[in-house]
Amino acid sequence: MDYGQVKELINNTLMGRVTGHEIEPQEHQDMAEAILDFAHGMEILGQSVLQGFATASTVPEQPDTVKICYIAIAPCNATTTFTNFKNQSNQSITVTCGQYEIKVVVLLWNTTYWEKMEETVNFENSITRNINGGNAAGNYS
What we know:
Layout: H1 3-14, H2 25-46, E1 49-53, E2 68-74, E3 78-86, E4 92-97, E5 101-109, E6 114-122, H3 124-133
Parallel strand pairs: 1-2
Antiparallel strand pairs: 2-5, 3-4, 5-6
């Protein structure tokens, strides 16, 4: 979850309830876990040294003592396999995007294996708005 999603979950759990509705234990747990997951992701990212941008064929550095990361963009309507970025199961990391979305991917080396963080950018509403509203503000070629 990204910052906006965590914030929305917090607001919905705490303030978006129907008057008189108590916060259920599962709702509270889901909210707390989302906050913890987001904080953990920021902690991991903050401890990593950015090496550069990655493509599906990038051969990454994998130092024994330093946590590093690469940033990548996964294109819409495709699955991108980062062949040389192996996860805990020794499988190449893959990222799948829908028709109207791309993903910004952070590939994190934890000194043993690669992990990923991904953020989806959905632009279907922007395209629909530009086509239907005649707004030429965006270039989506």
